[in-house]
Amino acid sequence: MLVDIVPIGDISAAVKREASAGLRSVYDCDVTVHSNQAIPEGAFDRSRNQYRAEQFIELASRIGRGEKNIGITEKDLYYRRRNYVFGLAYLNGNGSVISTYRLQTSTDGGITNKPADEVLSDRVRKEVVHEIGHTLGLEHCDNNKCVMSFSPTVREVDVKEENLCGTCSRLVH
């Protein structure tokens, strides 16, 4: 399987590297990194001061060259009535997106003592693996250590591991 990472806006080399490493280690897939893309026109919602996640997925799906494509952005994303999302993917689709905006460290409820760059790296790896998992047909998992568990806050992101639990792993392998 080939996964194409589609940077949308200004994404650091470190974030692209961590996303690639996470995907390769969990899915044993090939990963390419697309050229940087502009923020999709019309994606910004002035009333919310946030960006519509589905427009980033549409862009990644349209221009990505992989069987699965994942957009990565620093913009604050939302979907429907949710206040924000770390990422979004359609079950069994070919496109997905994650945002690093709320994965940064601050007074965000995270439960780790690692340096800020390591915390962001861990969270990026977990979120790309999680969203690609949805594109492979995986739903949210009840095991809070599984990377496919639902994470409404960074606290849950920090608790879960970077890997699929045995049940989820069997569903995709």
UniProtKB/TrEMBL annotation:
<feature type="binding site">
    <location>
        <position position="165"/>
    </location>
    <ligand>
        <name>Zn(2+) 2</name>
    </ligand>
</feature>
<dbReference type="InterPro" id="IPR012962">
    <property type="entry name" value="Pept_M54_archaemetzincn"/>
</dbReference>
<feature type="binding site">
    <location>
        <position position="168"/>
    </location>
    <ligand>
        <name>Zn(2+) 2</name>
    </ligand>
</feature>
<dbReference type="Pfam" id="PF07998">
    <property type="entry name" value="Peptidase_M54"/>
</dbReference>
<feature type="binding site">
    <location>
        <position position="130"/>
    </location>
    <ligand>
        <name>Zn(2+) 1</name>
    </ligand>
</feature>
<comment type="similarity">
    <text>Belongs to the peptidase M54 family.</text>
</comment>
<keyword id="KW-0482">Metalloprotease</keyword>
<comment type="subunit">
    <text>Monomer.</text>
</comment>
<keyword id="KW-0645">Protease</keyword>
<feature type="binding site">
    <location>
        <position position="146"/>
    </location>
    <ligand>
        <name>Zn(2+) 2</name>
    </ligand>
</feature>
<keyword id="KW-0479">Metal-binding</keyword>
<dbReference type="InterPro" id="IPR012091">
    <property type="entry name" value="Pept_M54_archaemetzncn_arc/bac"/>
</dbReference>
<dbReference type="InterPro" id="IPR024079">
    <property type="entry name" value="MetalloPept_cat_dom_sf"/>
</dbReference>
<protein>
    <recommendedName>
        <fullName>Archaemetzincin</fullName>
        <ecNumber>3.4.-.-</ecNumber>
    </recommendedName>
</protein>
<dbReference type="GO" id="GO:0008237">
    <property type="term" value="F:metallopeptidase activity"/>
</dbReference>
<feature type="active site" description="Proton acceptor">
    <location>
        <position position="131"/>
    </location>
</feature>
<dbReference type="GO" id="GO:0006508">
    <property type="term" value="P:proteolysis"/>
</dbReference>
<keyword id="KW-0862">Zinc</keyword>
<feature type="binding site">
    <location>
        <position position="134"/>
    </location>
    <ligand>
        <name>Zn(2+) 1</name>
    </ligand>
</feature>
<feature type="binding site">
    <location>
        <position position="141"/>
    </location>
    <ligand>
        <name>Zn(2+) 2</name>
    </ligand>
</feature>
<keyword id="KW-0378">Hydrolase</keyword>
<feature type="binding site">
    <location>
        <position position="140"/>
    </location>
    <ligand>
        <name>Zn(2+) 1</name>
    </ligand>
</feature>
<dbReference type="GO" id="GO:0008270">
    <property type="term" value="F:zinc ion binding"/>
</dbReference>
<comment type="function">
    <text>Probable zinc metalloprotease whose natural substrate is unknown.</text>
</comment>
